[in-house]
Amino acid sequence: PALEGQFWRFTHRRSAAASTRILAAAVHRSWQIQPVLQAPVVRLVGASQAAVSESSLQIEFVPVSLADVAWLSAEYPREVSFDTTVIQAPQQKHPSTAGSNLVVSNLKLVPGRKASILAVSVRLGRGGGRSVFSLATYRTAALDQKVDESLGFTAFYQAGRAEVSSALRSLYAVRAGNYPVRSSLDARAGEEAEAAFTISLSHELSVGDQLLLACEGQGAYRLIADHRTRLFLIAPDGGSEEELPASASAFG
User: Fold this and answer.
1) Dihedral pair phi/psi, residue 160, rounded to 5°
2) Contacts of 47 (CB under 8 A, 6+ apart)
3) What is the pTM of this model?
């Protein structure tokens, strides 16, 4: 409703001798109800999609009110950064943009008409998981009148990040006690070898999770999955390790 229509009227009346007397009266301004933005969507459209990568976001929504500015806040995962983000003209990156807050002006939003913003060079947050955003629109670039908003809506699932190191040993080196001379030889083509991978994950492993390991490229190795394939959990300080119950299978 219009601002002049948003009020409460209070009246204290007393009836006596077939007449009604007003003893007190007051008018109280009502609450400002914020319209809700319709169909807010944030999509991860860049090629790099792991945690802390630099990627691109497609932002879409349907405004309820006339506005010219949109303010997007990335709430989860943490440490999303729009500091180096580029916005395509004629839309403009507002000076208020900082850290996990992206402010875009010159949108010329029309009620009921879907708006779209492409944000390039966005640094994704840490850890990964289901992303959460809040979005609000403002009448002008002065940011003094918020008109629509949508708080805490979920968006894309952001992949975590894995750090990998590896080592390759010949089977002679694995059985150095049996082959003291050959144990110094590197792994050679046409022979089996042992590959060890140390993987640090940003998500915790849960029962039922799968780890997929693939060797790609023209000179790809053939992986053998048998009883010799083992999985260990290593303490963060590297001081201890625990073998985990796991089964391995090869495909492709």
Assistant:
1) -80, -160
2) 55
3) 0.69
